[in-house]
Amino acid sequence: MSENTKTLEVSVWRGTQEGGAFETFSVPAQESQTVLDVVSWIQQSADPTLTYRYACRVGMCGSCAMMVNGQPRWTCRTHVSRVLDGNRLEIAPLRNLPVIKDLAADMDPFFDKWIKAGGVHRPSRTRHEPIQEVSPEEPGRVEANKAIECINCSVCYAACDTVAGNEDYLGPAALQRAWTLYNDEKVQDRGAILDAVSGSDGCLNCHTQGSCTRYCPNELDPLSAIAGLKRAVATSFFRRRA
């Protein structure tokens, strides 16, 4: 690296769930450089033992999500120029998830909650019956369509302060998925979905801070989906008592 090369001071989390610390690297600054480019340079040119996760590099898979200067982001779509603090970056694994090693977070708790919230589609017809036709203009279909671009990157989960304070809370992505299925005409038992999300770890525990919607890279609105679940749970409760 020549003396005239501009450099970034990049602090990267090194360690496992049991403990670790930030390690600082000097990384050459490049035009149109992404945070993932920075991480890749460190692994390829400075320390090959650095562990991180990525796949598509074009904002399709979400696997490169990390904390960048304290905020959850897709690193492949985040340009350094947008987040640089002076000439410094701090990169860490996603918040609210166990750390496997360095920048790789364990996604199991995230997906376990996605399933617990009723995220598995349970159809109302068998494969031997005709496929149910659903109009794209049907109100429930319109509502369900709002969240089908969720790719389970866990950015909303890492942004959620309710998850940070209550590790049992299902989280925005799982609840958004539940709301999508609740509005799907092809789902047989909507009551079961409400039962799955109405406990102390469910939608009623949401503090409505909106970090999930603010940080969603696909510009989805989990906060509105959770609000819809809250209304549906309340309506179901009073109907049962009537």
UniProtKB/TrEMBL annotation:
It is an enzyme of class 1 (oxidoreductase). GO terms for molecular function: 2 iron, 2 sulfur cluster binding; 4 iron, 4 sulfur cluster binding; electron transfer activity; metal ion binding; succinate dehydrogenase (quinone) activity. Its EC number is 1.3.5.1. SUPFAM superfamilies: 2Fe-2S ferredoxin-like (SSF54292), alpha-helical ferredoxin (SSF46548). InterPro entries: 2Fe-2S_ferredoxin-like_sf, 2Fe-2S_ferredoxin-type, 2Fe2S_fd_BS, Beta-grasp_dom_sf, Helical_ferredxn, SDH/FRD_Iron-Sulfur, Succ_DH/fum_Rdtase_Fe-S, Succ_DH/fum_Rdtase_N. One of its GO terms (biological process) is tricarboxylic acid cycle. Pathway: Carbohydrate metabolism; tricarboxylic acid cycle; fumarate from succinate (bacterial route): step 1/1. Residues 8-95 form the 2Fe-2S ferredoxin-type domain. Its cofactor is [4Fe-4S] cluster; [3Fe-4S] cluster; [2Fe-2S] cluster. CDD domains: fer2. Keywords: 4Fe-4S, Iron, Iron-sulfur, Metal-binding, Oxidoreductase. NCBIfam families: dhsB. Part of an enzyme complex containing four subunits: a flavoprotein, an iron-sulfur, cytochrome b-556, and a hydrophobic anchor protein. Belongs to the succinate dehydrogenase/fumarate reductase iron-sulfur protein family. This is Succinate dehydrogenase iron-sulfur subunit. It comes from Paracoccus chinensis.
